[in-house]
Amino acid sequence: MNKIKFAVLGCGHIGKRHAEMINRNNDSALMAIIDIKDKESLNLDYDQVPFFSSLRDFLSSGIETDVITIATPNGLHAEQALVSLEAKKHVVIEKPLALTKKDAEKILSKAFQVHKHVFAVMQNRYSPPIAWAKKILDENILGRIFMVQVNCFWNRDERYYTGNTWHGTQLLDGGSLFTQFSHFVDILYWLVGDIEKIRSSFKSFNHEGLTEFEDSGIIQFELAGGAMGCMTFTTSTWDKNMESSITVIGENGSFKIGGQYMDKLEYVHIKNYTMPVLPPTNAANHYGPYSGSAANHGYIIENVIDVLHGKNTITTNALEGLKVVEIIERMYQKGNQ
């Protein structure tokens, strides 16, 4: 099979992770790296890979590429995806797909128009405990769902928000639910479906002067079947991340998945059920004292390759990426009501 050719747009921590996973895969090739910063300051390890300072410079270079991976600030995703799709490239878009439902819909419309794929990066779906939870919920093993609770207690302090950074701005960052916790909104949606009757309360405890938005929130909601739900989040835990967890209570049993990135099965008790042995969870990526991510980006690259070779379907398609944006937008719109 021909190698799938990638260009990576944006070479911060996540962009470098994508480049590394592309370079490791025998069925993909890293054709270009694009960033507005100069190459030397980015500390890149790819001396033989062409470097460009803008997306348009790259597109006019004539370098053959199948996919453009967009790992830039959130507020740039939609515009850059539209330019890439117009150039007849498939796109991989780091979370979130966009900062508004309207912009996400523009991406979908353009993708259909030019017959190209849009891959939304939601790598937490590959976590073995999350994949297990998806299976038992799809098979209705818990029966009727009574309650769902999501807790996200993280640290993002002055180390993250000061210096020459886009973090903390409404225009490019968009808010904690977009930048820190959209993965877990996706897991909530993927496991139990859409939410309704949203009531939200937001507050900033210790980020005034650091960000243009909240650092904490409590969101109550209901599921379509009548189950009660709540999502509680903060970026104000001292010094380091505490947990990201989801608890599901059903008529036939309950489970809790925790850890920093919803990657550890902490509690299972289900009627007439024998728990299988789950595969080991990948060690997390760490990007310094204040941040990190689940380490499943390699699966994203594999999925892109398999889809473009006609061997699989998209793990997180553009419609699902749009739905996550739409849910977060509704959470914010219902704030402090």
Précis, in short:
By secondary structure, the chain is of the alpha/beta class. It is built from eleven helices and 15 strands.
In round numbers, the mean pLDDT is 94
Structural domain count: 2
- Using the 3D structure, state the CATH architecture of the largest domain: 2-Layer Sandwich
Order of neighbouring strands in the sheet with most strands: 8-9-10-7-11-12-13
Distance between the termini: 55 Å
Proportion of strand residues: 15-25%
Radius of gyration: 20 Å
| Structural classification | alpha/beta
SSE order, one letter for each helix or strand: EHEHEHEHEHEHEHHHEEEEEEEEHH
Summarize the main sheet: 7 strands, mixed
Number of strands: 15
CATH class of the largest domain: Alpha Beta
Low-confidence stretches: none
Helix content range of the residues, please? 25-40%
Number of helices, counting only DSSP H or I runs of 4 residues or more: 11
| CATH fold title of the largest domain | Dihydrodipicolinate Reductase, domain 2
CATH H-tier superfamily of the largest domain: Dihydrodipicolinate Reductase, domain 2
Question: What would you note in describing this structure?
Answer:
By secondary structure, this protein is α/β, with parallel strands linked by helices. The chain folds into two domains: 4-120, Rossmann fold (3-Layer(aba) Sandwich); 125-288, Dihydrodipicolinate Reductase, domain 2 (2-Layer Sandwich). Helices cover 31% and strands 25% of the residues. Helix 5 runs antiparallel to helix 11 (318-333) and helix 9 (182-192) crosses helix 11. The longest helix is centred in the C-terminal third of the chain and has 16 residues, at 318-333. The radius of gyration is 20 Å and the shape is globular.
